[in-house]
Structures are given as structure tokens and as C-alpha cells.
Amino acid sequence: MKVMIINAHLSRVMGGSEVACHINTKAFVDKGYDVVYGAVNGYDDSVEWPYPIVEINKQDQKDLATFLIKQKVDVLYWNYNKKLIWPNFKNIRKAGIPIFFSVNHVNDLQYYPKKKPYKSPWLILKHNLKKVTKAYHFFQARKMINGYIAINKEHLGLIPERFNKTFIPFGVFDEYVEPAPTPRPYVVWVASIKKVKNPELFLDLAKALEHLDMDFYLIGKAQEEHYASWGEEAEKQPNFRFLGGQEMKMTNGYIKNSRMFISTCEAEGFPMVYLQAWAFGRPVVSMNYDPSDVIEEEHLGYCSHGDFQAFVKQVESLVTDNETYEKISTSCRKYIDEHHNVSRNVDRLYAYFNESKK
Hints:
Layout: E1 2-7, H1 16-30, E2 34-40, E3 53-56, H2 58-62, H3 64-70, E4 75-78, H4 88-94, E5 99-103, H5 121-141, E6 147-150, E7 165-167, E8 186-190, H6 199-208, E9 215-219, H7 230-234, E10 240-244, H8 248-256, E11 261-263, H9 272-279, E12 284-286, H10 294-297, E13 301-303, H11 308-320, H12 322-339, H13 342-356
Parallel strand pairs: 1-2, 1-4, 2-3, 4-5, 5-6, 6-7, 8-9, 9-10, 11-12, 12-13
Domain Glycosyl transferase family: 179-333
GO molecular function: glycosyltransferase activity
InterPro entries: Glyco_trans_1
């Protein structure tokens, strides 16, 4: 059974689902399964990747069914959100290829995902027409899906009972490159720099905790024009360091050597970077989002649920209280070993494909 995992590739887009697909594809190969990565809009072909990989160019995207037939694919594992799904899903099913849809973000299950508001009446009308069209395409496409795979257990309840569904969490990418020694201990924030990630709150945190012997490192690239020079401006804060975008293994190195990982993001799927932090025994302190309540229930850090003053106190407590810090650090490693072992999870994926493909 040949599986194709479709998504953008991490050599082009450094996001959580791209990292997860890289991990899973490599693990499929390591386990001896027949797999190929379908990289939407290409990949860095100067690198020798540890798995078979093919580019899905603009022309192929218009007729994915023919592309999959040429690649002799038996099962499609779709990780590319709701992009390109219609009429491709209809044609893929006509070709007899089962489709498994990974729910990587809450928006993947919504007909009308929340977007930033427009001020112009013309843009509002244009946006609403586009939104209705996309909703109709999703309504039609979801009938073609053989099974949903949620990476966040709380998303299972958002999938109607009439659909085949399961919960299989991401594995962890824990390879790293050791960064240069840092002059002071630090906490770290990693994400694309855009409004829904709220990087301003991380800067506010640095200002609120300026009295600590601690620096605040921000890693990420600006994804919106508003933030084009934001990082450089933020460095005027004495304890704030803007590192820009970093290669994946170097990012892991910074996480590994940090005191803790800080998140100011809005609700999404199950952030891969949380797993990377926990794999290194680093607590996560989240301002807004605790996926499936695992941070609090498994004692993996803290979530302040939007309360900035509580957020500040939680971070400070993990800087000053070493006993609590060590207990949480131990819980982090234990949780990853029990729930996010990539070898076990790809076996579960393969079994689910095999059972549900008919």
C-alpha cells in the first residue's frame, strides 16, 4: 500500500504541519512502509531528504487525480488544509484512491473560519462571496473523505458523528544544532510573526519582567507587512533579542537551551513547537491557548487564559522556583514518551488507512 503525504514542504514553509509531515514521512520509511511526500509548490532539491519526495507543481494541482495515478498512489494522506480540495477530491475518489484528511487547525473543520474584518464595503462583499464559494466546496469535498485524523483530541467533537474519525497525535522532531553560548539565561518564543500570534504580548512580557536576570528571545519571520520591521524596533527593549527566522534544527537548539517556551498565540490545532519544548523538558507558558487542556492536566507548564497579569506571574514563578520547575520538566519528558512516540503513531496511522480505505 503506497501512501502519499501531501502538504507544503518545510524547506519552503516552516510551519507545524510541515514539520510533522517531515517527521511522519521519515518514520514511515524507517518502518519499511511504502510512502512518498507530495510537496505542493516544490521543495529544496539540493538537500538529500530521508524519504522519496515529488513536486506538485501548478499544473499538477489542477488535476491531482491524474498525478496520483501516475505516482501509483494507493492512499492519500491530506495535510494541506482546505486548499485545492475541490474538485480534486471528487476526481481522486472517482479514481478509486481513498482520502484521509488531517485536521491540523480548528479552521479545517469550519465552513466560515474567522478572518480579520475588512473596512471597505466592496472588500466585505468580495470576501463574503468568496467565503460562501469556499464553504460550498468544503461541503461537497468532505463527502469524499474516507477518514478524518485529529491531532487535537478536542477537535474530534467538532467532526460530525456520521464521518469516520480518529485521534492520532503528532510525533516529535527533537534533532537540534547547538547555538552559540548566550550571555544570560533566556526564555524563547517561536512562531510566524503575524497578528494571530500576538508577538506584541511577548514584548510586553519582556518589559514587565525587566527586573529578572533573563533575556527574551523571539524567533520567526514576518508574515504580514505590518510586522516587516517590528522585530528590529522591538530590540530597543534592553532584554529583548530578535533572532529572525532560523533553520529548524537551530530553532530546536534554542528551545533546548532555554528556561521555558512562551506562547501568545490564539487557538489553533496542537502546536508542534509545544511538543518540541516538552521533548527537551522545557515547560510551556501560554497566554491564551491550552490544547485539550493538556498543559494544566498533565502539569506541562501554565496557561493564563488571556489574563496578562497571571501570565507574567506564571513566567516569573518558573524563573525563580527551581523545585516546581524541575517537577514540570520531568512531567514534560514523561508526557512526550507516553503520547507522542512517532514510531508508535505511524503504525497507528498505517493501520487506520488499511482499515478505513474501503
